[in-house]
Amino acid sequence: MGDWERVEWMERTKEDETDPGGRHARPGGVANPTAAGRAPGNRAMGAFSAADEEKFRGVRRMKLTATGLLLAVAVVYVLATWAGNSGAGAWTGYVAAAAEAGMVGALADWFAVTALFRRPLGLPIPHTAIIPTKKDQLGVSLGEFVGENFLSGAVVRQRLRSVGIGSRLGAWLARPEHADRVTAELATALRGALAVLRDSDVQAVVGEAINRRADAQEIAPGIGKMLERVVADGGHRRVVDLVCVRAHDWLVLHNDQVMDAVQGGAPGWTPRFVDKRVGERVYKELLRFVTEMRDMPGHPARGALDRFLTDFASDLQSDTDTRARVENLKREVLGRGEVQDLIASAWSSVRQMIVAAAEDELSELRLRVRASLLSLGARTATDPKLQAKIDGWVEGAAVYVVTTYRDEITSLITDTVAGWDAEHTSRKIEAHIGRDLQFIRINGTVVGSLAGLAIHTVSRALGG
């Protein structure tokens, strides 16, 4: 396609965009094929941008240069042939041979370069217009090439191993400004995640997890073993001591209430002085009993309490009825609305605390995260074993991704290329690499001329 055809195509494209399917529609009801290729639903490459137009202007300049060089050697050939026929000397044969070979080289390379993007002179020559006609095959070949040479497990593993991600990551994290940046990004991500979560959803998930875990595991044997260890170690005695001290102090401070309670429970037919004497006697006996339990570690009541707790711990582990009662009590407690409300309120408090800590740069949470990142970076930068472990994790993850999803990745290439409009794709590619391809024409002209000169010289030297 010449420059005038390029200009005509660009003008048709603009007209079709302003008057789609109208007066510029072609016979058969199909407008400009390039515009049709960019219709909605067809994944064509983007329209020519200002940068593409600038590149294509460079292509046109190089085309003019290459064509001008072809015309120059053609003129030289004509002049040299005329001069030789006029008897100017043997030198004209050398010049004519060089110019003739330069024309042949220029025309051959023009044909090769043009055949990539369109049919030369519009002739249906086989194996021309390679990019428009073989676009889909090129996309498949490109996808297979990328899959075999870039997305293989061995290539990915070797490349990542040569990079040394572990040591680089350690050195990067060991710098305070980088640790601050990672900490800030983690805090932002944490706030975003907590903002997305709804309290009702978290409450439902936590409640379900607690109920599922509680149903899956019986708690009575565990409580029994813990109680057994507590009694064996004497840990319950501190609780008994505390209860005795508090009971003694309460009786001393509330003696009147105790006697009134005893007197109020006496029959109505008993004399008042008898009720009073009985109340005083009961109060004194209670006070004496509590005082003895407080002051006597070997008090019989303490021993009876130890035996009770020991027997109860054994029943929790082995008695079927006791374990069943504990399980029923567990289900009743977990099923109460107060427990679910407690879970909801606990989550709300925890979330507010975490969000506040994430927003405060001087919070203990962010300071600890920053310190951990710095420590991790310093260790990773100097510990070969840790570096090897990180490299192994990264390599394993990358190899898994490329081997598992290689077909999906390569199909992205093939499907994308298959969805491009053939003619527009060819022009887009020509705009990007056409300038360099024109140097082939120039080189063909120069090399052809030199080869023709060399061949003619050898022929003359051999007496041709």
TrEMBL record:
<dbReference type="InterPro" id="IPR007383">
    <property type="entry name" value="DUF445"/>
</dbReference>
<keyword id="KW-0472">Membrane</keyword>
<keyword id="KW-0812">Transmembrane</keyword>
<feature type="region of interest" description="Disordered">
    <location>
        <begin position="12"/>
        <end position="43"/>
    </location>
</feature>
<feature type="transmembrane region" description="Helical">
    <location>
        <begin position="64"/>
        <end position="83"/>
    </location>
</feature>
<keyword id="KW-1133">Transmembrane helix</keyword>
<feature type="transmembrane region" description="Helical">
    <location>
        <begin position="95"/>
        <end position="117"/>
    </location>
</feature>
<protein>
    <submittedName>
        <fullName>Membrane protein</fullName>
    </submittedName>
</protein>
<dbReference type="Pfam" id="PF04286">
    <property type="entry name" value="DUF445"/>
</dbReference>
<dbReference type="GO" id="GO:0005886">
    <property type="term" value="C:plasma membrane"/>
</dbReference>
